[in-house]
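Action item from last week, closing it out:
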Amino acid sequence: MRLDRWLATLGAGSRSEVKEWIRGGKAAVNGRIIRDPALSFDTEKDALSLHGKALDGRVMRHVMMNKPAGVLTAARDPKQPTVMDLLPPVYRGIGCMPVGRLDKDTTGILLFTCDGELNHRLLSPGRHVDKVYRAVVAGTPGQEAVDAFAAGMDLGDFMAQGAKLEILRAGTESSLAEVTVSEGKFHQVKRMFAAAGHEVLALHRRSFGPLELDPDLPEGAWRELTGDEVEALRAAAGIREEA
């Protein structure tokens, strides 16, 4: 990537500002002052600094967040907070976007990636990447609900694929259930429970594909994925086999 674009993408300044700084000898790559804004470098391997301070130059990053309730899964919204507001601005600049979405009141694991192909493949119904949810629902779902989930449901605007429903704790007023789905249509889990006659009172996603929510992440917190976690996601998306 061109040095001026690299710095601008990282949010170091505007394109015109960083060009001026580069020409003035304020930028260095691998310890060498670079004065040509058009020179290209490897953003994942080369060491970048500006005004004598080292910068994290990576533009390919992957993040796990424990999404809290009350924030939208969106890039930006003029009236309400979004999950992007919980990340440093640089992640928006490099195009690190959510993989799918969670409803505003749903909590749990939410992934972000700068890799558009990985994002697309993880959400493709043909890949059958499982997502596991814990749901507190009204009433007591029985075997009839378990069978209905397994068979798939016609929700009007789409046919939900079969899903695994397990009742973890049955109660008269409310019950705790775990649901495994391989797709992620809008309000899908809530709508499937509603079709079975049970309102969802709380919903939490505990895993996405091979990754489980890090138990050390409180709501609203995030961390970057490890190399092994990224490789596991790529394998689930069918990318590693085709590389």
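Closing note: The helical segments are 3-9, 15-23, 89-93, 116-123, 143-151, 188-195, 227-236.
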